[in-house]
């Protein structure tokens, strides 16, 4: 077989350049000793998920902590899965979490010397290497049809053999020169396959940056490297790209471990030095009795869009991800709660080897703590940004009166009080939490625990003495007065000693007023709420509550 001739026929010289050209075009990067080059290489499917963020944070830390570079590459070889706007979705989702790329697909202002960063725009480089492999007898055209391949799969399954295109089953591996040219002359569609040199009998030991020393079975599959439309497969493209983009470390999900033998062989036959690979554990959750991987179909929290829509505070999500990524992060963070997260020394060898348990409740706790560190102004900006993008018109309008909103936030966050309140978990929940401060969204259910007559007397009694100028203690004296008038205990000790002597205590009276004013039984300080709402609105709410009794 004249492989040189076949290579020239299948990949004409005018379509490619000599291999040295690419080595010169993409020289070794000029970076300080020890600097790492990492990447995020999502497929543009439009679905960017927590697993992507999980590895993005690790890759970002490894690159930037070492003075290296992190780039964004779009692996768009599979057109069927491509979705319009997917690259923007990736960038927006990651920007929210402050993941910075130094270069890559649509990273403006960067030199982008190692591009293009969309795989479909790199066809020429892939073709040059396909040509080289054909010349060396390490790749060949395969004319098998879909039907033939399914028949092969069925036969292998029936015979309980490993399925795939390999060894004796790789029919086109041994086509004669005449057969190949006859097929080409007949314009039969073809793919290019790797002529695997491996054997499934052989085991390889491999050093995974996260999992340590692992044993993998050598690849023996003649995998497709170029599809019939001339577009490479992900496996082939990624090996060439990681080489020419001068990637030094790849942290990716452990679902890629199964493809590792193929990648090892591809790097070997291409004559490239492999980057270091670390396969990161999957994110799991407890579902009833079982522990399972987060699933796209069942778990909305897998999608990164979920965190933006719900208004999770980006730092909180990052803190939680770092907690799951590095076993010593939690302790560091406890000692350094206010430091920039970049100050933590991230290390690959502190990454977990097996599944990380992702618990939304834990994230919610972290979120409460993180939000409790903000000033009212910072909270205003955070909530306003969320409302602007995801809120209803009424919620957007909350932010028109800055002074009013700041008063609400100061109260609800317990700023100036003895202890910060931790009522806010996400922007969405916080904005819903404060709805009662705005007449347009004040929709009380008035769930009183006392009979109508009593409630009526309490509210009317309070309204008669209410004065907006009262300070907290004057206000409370008046509530006590109303309690006493209606036979409720004003002395909690006396009440606790003989609860049966009273219909209830002053705190029950306060609760009636609270429900009347806010529709809720549990709120921050009611006197301050009345002050924030102001006299007119307070009286109107008391009237409204009376009207339905
Ligand atoms: N394109 C692959 C993905 O969508 C990336 C695999 C890798 O990082 O090597 O996840």
Attribute tags:
549 residues, mainly alpha, Rossmann fold, 4 domains, elongated
How many beta-strand elements? 13
Report the uncertain regions.
none
> If you consult CATH, what is the topology of the largest domain?
Rossmann fold
Q: Could you name the CATH class of the largest domain?
A: Alpha Beta
Which structural class is indicated by helix and strand composition? Answer: mainly alpha
Secondary structure: elements and pairs:
Layout: H1 3-10, H2 19-25, E1 37-40, H3 50-65, E2 69-72, H4 86-96, E3 103-104, H5 123-135, E4 139-142, H6 146-158, H7 177-185, E5 191-194, E6 203-208, E7 212-217, E8 224-226, H8 234-244, E9 249-253, H9 260-270, E10 276-280, E11 283-287, E12 290-293, H10 304-310, H11 314-325, H12 329-335, E13 356-357, H13 360-371, H14 376-390, H15 393-397, H16 402-412, H17 427-433, H18 452-465, H19 472-485, H20 492-497, H21 506-518, H22 526-547
Parallel strand pairs: 1-2, 2-3, 9-10, 11-13
Antiparallel strand pairs: 4-5, 5-8, 6-7, 11-12
Glutamic acid (GLU) binds next to α8 and β9.
Characterise this structure.
The chain is mostly helical. It has four domains: 3-15 and 124-280, HUPs (Rossmann fold), CATH 3.40.50; 298-347 and 359-371, no CATH class; 374-431, no CATH class; 452-547, Orthogonal Bundle (Arc Repressor Mutant, subunit A). Helix content is 44%, strand content 10%. The chain has helices at residues 3-10, 19-25, 50-65, 86-96, 123-135, 146-158, 177-185, 234-244, 260-270, 304-310, 314-325, 329-335, 360-371, 376-390, 393-397, 402-412, 427-433, 452-465, 472-485, 492-497, 506-518, 526-547, and strands spanning 37-40, 69-72, 103-104, 139-142, 191-194, 203-208, 212-217, 224-226, 249-253, 276-280, 283-287, 290-293, 356-357. The strands form five sheets. Strands 1-2-3 form a three-stranded parallel sheet, covered by helices on one side. α1 packs antiparallel against α5, α14 (376-390) packs across α17 and α18 (452-465) crosses α22. The chain is elongated. The mean pLDDT is 96.
């Amino acid at each position: 077989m004249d492989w040189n001739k076949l290579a020239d026929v299948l990949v004409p010289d005018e379509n490619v350049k000599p291999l040295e050209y690419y080595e010169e075009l993409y020289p070794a990067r000029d970076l300080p000793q020890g600097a790492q080059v990492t990447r995020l290489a999502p497929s543009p499917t439009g679905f960017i998920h927590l697993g992507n963020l999980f590895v993005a944070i690790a890759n970002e830390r490894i690159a930037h902590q070492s003075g290296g570079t992190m780039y964004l590459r779009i692996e768009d070889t599979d057109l069927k899965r491509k979705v319009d706007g997917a690259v923007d979705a990736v960038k927006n989702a990651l920007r929210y979490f402050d993941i910075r790329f130094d270069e890559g697909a649509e990273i403006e202002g960067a030199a982008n010397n190692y591009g293009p960063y969309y795989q479909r725009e790199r066809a020429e480089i892939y073709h040059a290497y396909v040509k080289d492999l054909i010349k060396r007898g390490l790749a060949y055209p395969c004319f098998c049809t879909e039907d033939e391949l399914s028949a092969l799969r069925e036969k292998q399954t029936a015979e309980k053999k490993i399925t795939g295109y390999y060894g004796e089953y790789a029919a086109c591996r041994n086509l004669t020169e005449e057969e190949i040219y006859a097929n080409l002359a007949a314009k039969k569609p073809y793919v290019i396959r790797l002529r695997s040199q491996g054997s499934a009998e052989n085991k390889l030991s491999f050093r995974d940056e996260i999992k340590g020393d692992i044993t993998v079975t050598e690849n023996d599959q003649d995998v497709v490297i170029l599809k019939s439309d001339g577009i490479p497969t992900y496996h082939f493209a990624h090996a060439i790209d990681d080489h020419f983009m001068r990637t030094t470390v790849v942290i990716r999900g452990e679902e890629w471990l199964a493809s590792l033998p193929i990648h090892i062989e591809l790097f070997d036959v291409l004559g490239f030095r492999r980057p270091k690979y670390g396969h990161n554990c999957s994110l799991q959750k407890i579902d009833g009795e079982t522990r399972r991987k987060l699933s796209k179909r069942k778990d909305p929290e897998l999608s990164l869009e979920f965190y933006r829509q719900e208004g999770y505070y980006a730092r909180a999500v990052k803190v939680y991800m770092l907690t799951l990524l590095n076993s010593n992060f939690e302790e560091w963070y406890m000692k350094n709660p206010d430091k920039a997260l970049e100050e933590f020394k991230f290390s690959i060898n502190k990454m977990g080897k097996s599944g990380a348990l992702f618990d939304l409740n834990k994230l919610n706790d972290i979120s409460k703590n993180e939000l409790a560190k903000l000033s009212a102004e910072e909270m205003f900006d955070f909530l306003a940004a969320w409302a602007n993008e995801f809120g209803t018109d009424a919620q957007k309008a909350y932010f028109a009166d800055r002074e009013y909103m700041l008063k609400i936030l100061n109260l609800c966050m317990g700023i100036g009080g003895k202890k910060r309140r931790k009522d806010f978990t996400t922007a969405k929940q916080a904005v819903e939490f404060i709805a009662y401060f705005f007449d347009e969204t004040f929709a009380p259910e008035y769930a009183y625990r006392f009979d109508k007559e009593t409630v009526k007397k309490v509210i009317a009694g309070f309204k008669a003495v209410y004065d907006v100028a009262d300070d907290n203690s004057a206000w409370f004296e008046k509530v006590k007065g109303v309690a006493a008038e209606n036979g409720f205990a004003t002395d909690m000790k006396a009440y606790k000693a003989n609860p049966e002597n009273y219909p209830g205590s002053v705190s029950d009276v306060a609760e009636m007023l609270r429900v009347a004013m806010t529709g809720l039984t549990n709120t921050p300080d009611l006197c301050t709420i009345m002050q924030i709402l102001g006299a007119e609105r307070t009286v109107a709410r008391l009237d409204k509550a009376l009207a339905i009794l």
